[in-house]
TrEMBL record:
Transmembrane segments: none
Keyword Transferase assigned: no
Gene3D superfamilies named among the record's database cross-references: alpha/beta hydrolase
Keywords, sorted A to Z: Signal
Protein name as annotated: Alpha/beta hydrolase
């Protein structure tokens, strides 16, 4: 471990992720060892963990050290990940179809996931957007080739595309647990790639890929700048529209696409998002269109040029989150919220499987207001929560860390707290969110 610690110091110095990083680490060697062990454990146990795992690195830090420590800890995270896996070099797109290299990821309890990874255009002076593009539910070899062809045609260059093939035609769903883990790996590795813009990640797809992209957008809305389902239509309980706050949402479906009620479900999404945009102007940007005279085949070229105009907001003041299960699995966090203990007990209360969180972080008054409700799957009935714990990670963009923070929970003032920045908050938020824009120096814990 001693030799590896010295390698970490070299990595921190050589990666060059920021001019303020120091040759001499601000962290103790024991903290570095604990951090590396913690990061390895989180990556190894990602399929089993369902809540935030705390660290024993409780070293307090000075406000003047936060930026340098964020860079240093991110460099260690980068090093630990790089030992395991990185994204492959993308195949440069050419005119017409060619023999693009087909890569493959192993999945947990499922067949492997083949995928194309391509780049359109050159890097230039700015980082590239990345599109996750999901195919429809025909024979998977044919669907994969068709989706590659569409990806090459879309007018969004320069860009990168991750184009997966469904692992198993008997389980033709893009939101099942084994592929959830693949998307989380893709997001994690994309955040580490210096040529990808972490605020320009998008998900889109046609038909079955439309269903999948709508669900994934609601589940991972804190990562995606935008989402573009096409020729799809999910019931809103499968993709709660409240989660699309701060996400640019495009939805193109044929007006005559009556199969499985796709046109009606698309209209339902439009009505819901129209209402939310009216209540929260500017927060629910969307472009939902029923293409006149079209059935299941529509003009697919309109989506990605619209999406690529929008960037992600990684640290919004307001967070609305319907915490819901997808294939029986819940997220451990969303934006700056982390689940420390599940607020749902399906064994004791099977009619209620999700929770609504509404959080307002007001830096002007240094007040965090939290409201929660236990919801049924259709989100038509609610109850008060009786259990659960969350952590709210914070930085100086959201609140003033130098002052006490007032906490109001379900309309009750529960007091003020002095928030102390610690190494543990930085480390835990890196492992939980794997996001360079969400490395938080402090957290507030709350029993629900």
């Amino acid at each position: 471990m001693k030799n590896y610690t010295s390698k970490i110091f070299k990595v921190i110095f050589l990666i060059g992720i920021g001019p303020s990083i120091q040759a001499q680490s601000l962290l103790h060697k024991n903290d570095l060892m604990k951090m590396e062990t913690y990061f390895d454990a989180r990556l190894a146990n990602v399929a089993a963990e369902d809540s935030l795992v705390s660290t024993s690195i409780n070293t307090k830090i000075k406000a003047t050290e936060i930026t340098a420590l964020q860079q240093e800890i991110w460099a260690v995270w980068n090093s630990v990940n790089s030992r395991r896996e990185t994204l492959p070099l993308p195949t440069q797109a050419a005119r017409g179809l060619q023999d693009y290299k087909l890569h493959q990821w192993e999945l947990v309890n499922e067949n492997p996931l083949p995928y194309y990874y391509i780049q359109k255009g050159s890097i230039g002076h700015t980082k590239l957007p990345l599109f996750l593009n999901l195919h429809g539910s025909g024979p998977k070899e044919m669907e994969l080739k068709a989706t590659l062809a569409w990806s090459l045609r879309y007018r969004d260059s320069p860009s990168r595309y991750f184009i997966p093939q469904i692992p198993n035609e008997r389980r033709y769903r893009w939101w099942l647990k084994p592929v959830q883990l693949a998307w989380e790996k893709l997001l994690r590795l994309a955040m580490l790639d210096q040529q990808i813009d972490p605020n320009a990640l998008y998900v889109m797809g046609i038909s079955e890929g439309g269903y999948g992209s709508q669900r994934l957008a609601a589940f991972y809305a804190d990562y995606f700048a935008g989402a573009g389902p096409m020729a799809g239509g999910e019931p809103l309980k499968n993709a709660p529209p409240e989660n699309f706050k701060h996400l640019a949402f495009s939805f193109q479906t044929g007006a005559n696409d009556t199969g499985f009620g796709r046109n009606k479900l698309t209209l339902s999404a439009k009505n819901a998002l129209d209402s939310l945009e009216h209540l929260f102007p500017g927060d629910f940007v969307h472009n939902i269109v029923l293409q006149e005279g079209r059935g299941h085949g529509i003009d697919y070229t309109l989506t990605s040029p619209w999406l690529v105009q929008y960037k992600r907001k990684p640290n919004p003041r307001y967070v609305n989150w319907i915490w819901f299960p997808m294939d029986g699995r819940y997220r451990k966090g969303f934006y700056n919220i982390a689940i420390e203990q599940s607020p749902v007990s399906l064994k004791d209360n099977p009619q209620y499987d999700r929770v609504r969180f509404d959080i307002d972080m007001d830096k002007a008054t240094n007040t965090i207001t939290i409201k929660t409700k236990l919801l049924n799957p259709d989100m038509t009935a609610q109850q008060a929560l009786k259990k659960g714990k969350i952590a709210i990670f914070v930085n100086n963009e959201l609140i003033d860390l130098s002052k006490k923070v007032t906490i109001i929970y379900n309309d009750k003032n529960i007091g003020q707290q002095k928030i102390v920045p610690t190494v543990s908050a930085l480390v835990e938020s890196v492992a939980l969110f794997a996001d360079p824009n969400r490395i938080y120096p402090a957290k507030i814990q709350l029993a629900l």
